Amino acid sequence: MIVSLIIIGIIILVLFWSATLIFFNDKSSKIIEVDDNKVFSDKCKSIILKHEIKKDTAVFMIHGYLSTPNVYQYSAHSFFEEGYDAFAYLLPGFGTSVDDFKKTTFSDWFNYISLKYEKIRKEYENVIIVGISMGGSITLKLGEKYCNTNLEPTAIIPISAPVIYNSLIRDRKITNFYFYFARFISIFKKTFNPSICNRVNEESNNDNNNNWIGYSGIFLKQSMSFIKAEKKIRKDLKNITCPMFVIHNITDKTVPFFNFSIIAKENNSRHFEAKIIKMNGFKHTMHVLLLYYSVREELTYNIINFIEGVFDEQKR
């Protein structure tokens, strides 16, 4: 009887340790440099579009988990044509090799992009941060870090951004129940089917989804570092006071729509706007919204309108 209780207790403790990520350590000891010359495809490279005559506004874009800046090709050029300088940097470990990616975690990605943001913010009168998926989460975290400082962003625009993954007790929301066991599984196996994903040769463009380039597979340590970070991002949403425009698709198959509701309710933006869309009839995940032919033009136009609205408000 006593032995059985001890075994049950150990199982409960292990499950608690795995599910809550308690004591999970994700600290970056140094800034990892990114070499665009090492990318597996030129489409993975950072996007930097600057006018010959310096502009006073920059749009600073952040790509998502496993992804690359290529998702911003259309929007970045649209912002440039509108008269803004545009930047979308490749994050450390992304777009080069699976082995490079395995050496990085969320803290590496965030610390790297924070330094890039600080440099750009000091050079421009206005900086708008745009992020898709994990890039949207990082966008929120940058807002939380820099709002009410001299490096406050002019506005932030998180798109399809997650702020919780599994939150059974507090929110009764689950994205993937099996990920409660990920930490325990990672003791025995770190990755599942890791590979480079380059869809450019697909016969059907599937709403331009074939131009998504990055990694595929499951990377447990990297995923857990991001999921752990989401908890702090959600906790600090109240620190966001700058203008914010949140975009989400109701039928998103990657980041459930309940994330939008949390962001909308728990921020303190002084100028909050939202765009909710509903996509149907596509074979892709309907998640990387600025990539898809079907919605990218409209959403990019909405973003530009929001930016101009923020500028108009500044003039009053």
Could you explain how this protein is built, in words?
- By secondary structure, the chain is α/β, with parallel strands linked by helices.
- It has a single domain (38-315), classed as 3-Layer(aba) Sandwich (Rossmann fold).
- The chain contains nine helices and eleven strands.
- The chain has helices spanning 2-20, 73-82, 98-102, 106-123, 134-146, 182-185, 220-235, 258-266, 293-315; strands at residues 47-49, 57-62, 85-89, 126-132, 155-159, 166-167, 173-174, 191-198, 213-219, 244-249, 272-277.
- The strands form three sheets. Strands 1-3-2-4-5-10-11 form a seven-stranded mixed β-sheet, sandwiched between helices. Strands 6-7 form a two-stranded antiparallel ribbon.
- Helix 5 (134-146) links the parallel strand 4 (126-132) and strand 5 (155-159).
- Helix 2 packs parallel to helix 9.
- The termini are far apart.
- The model has no long low-confidence stretch (mean pLDDT 95).
Strand content: 15-25%
Q: How many domains in all?
A: 1
- Quaternary status: single chain
Structural class: alpha/beta
Quick structural gist:
By secondary structure, the chain is an alpha/beta fold. It has helices spanning 2-20, 73-82, 98-102, 106-123, 134-146, 182-185, 220-235, 258-266, 293-315; strands at residues 47-49, 57-62, 85-89, 126-132, 155-159, 166-167, 173-174, 191-198, 213-219, 244-249, 272-277. Strands 1-3-2-4-5-10-11 form a seven-stranded mixed sheet, sandwiched between helices.
